[in-house]
Write a structure and sequence with these properties.
This protein has about 350 residues and is mainly α. Among the domains are: about 80 residues, no CATH class; about 140 residues, hpI Integrase, Chain A, CATH 1.10.443. The protein is about 40% helix and about 5% strand. The chain contains twelve helices and four strands; from the N terminus they run H-H-H-H-H-E-E-E-E-H-H-H-H-H-H-H.
Length: about 350
Amino acid sequence: MLCFAAYLRRTRDGKRHAASTHHDRIPIRSVTIDQYISHVASLLIEQCHITASTLIRSTLLTQLLDGYANWDDADLPLRLRVKIPLTAALCVVALRVIDDLFRHQPSRRLGLRASLCLGYGLSLRPGEYLTNPHKPVPLKQQATSSSCFFSFGDTAFNVCCPNLYPSGKCPDHFAVFFHHLKNDRVGQGGPRAVARNPTFSPAATDFCCLSEIYTFLLAYPPSSGLPVMSGGGGPVLWTDLRTVLHLTALRSGLDPERVLPHSNRSGPNMQLEDFEDSVKMAQGNWTTLPGMRSYVHGSLKHASKVTSALHDIQMCPVAHLRTFFMPICDPPSSAPDTPLL
């Protein structure tokens, strides 16, 4: 696989980025090489040569792909390297893409819709709710069925027991109690929860994260101790959601290589631009302010706020500029009535 990756890098040409300053050949990108390797691994598993894709991936291969990735972005401005936030508007487009792709696969369609809303509503990292066969995450760091609950008023029910839900009622909250988080500190993790959208209507263009999660888990409840999204025939894969977001980006006119499952970490932060930093930190379970602010992209919201002031010609009249920035002197004697421009 190491030789295969080097061969692809040496012989395959990639797409030239609009902001690239390279004038020579542009080699295939690291992320595309990784997809080639994934396809080879799938074929070897199907033909019973190996039992897991991790058996053909070494630490050296990971380091090689990381090195290629660093070179790919070496000449790009920082704004073109960051992941594009998955905002509410993009989520609506993604839900339509899922419906188009999996119209005849109900369990997969509902599972992807619920996973998208779960990651967005709770600002989760991909490994906390998606399965990546190349980078397995321990169950204690995932949202599992034993740690997820729906609350109906004052009563909470585990997602494994839909027969106990109150008949004809919709839940108010969905909560996840993680056993361990990447930046976990004892006593500071707490549950992560998402509430029902009070203005949601099936006929409207908006969406409700809780409604999507509840629809899937009611129809396909998971077994005890397994990933919460595994009830539809198996865990939802990172690659499936990656494909959905790739097509979502293309449909929205965005760079598909920068709309990824990890975009869910920064998308809700843009939606919460008007809230205090403490609220945004709690949304994504950030323990430090610098860690949270690295996900903030508030330029669009800022532009909307200041538009009126920027275009108000009375805000800073020319007379004020004369007063504050012109030297104090007598007007020219040859033209005593000429105003100072």
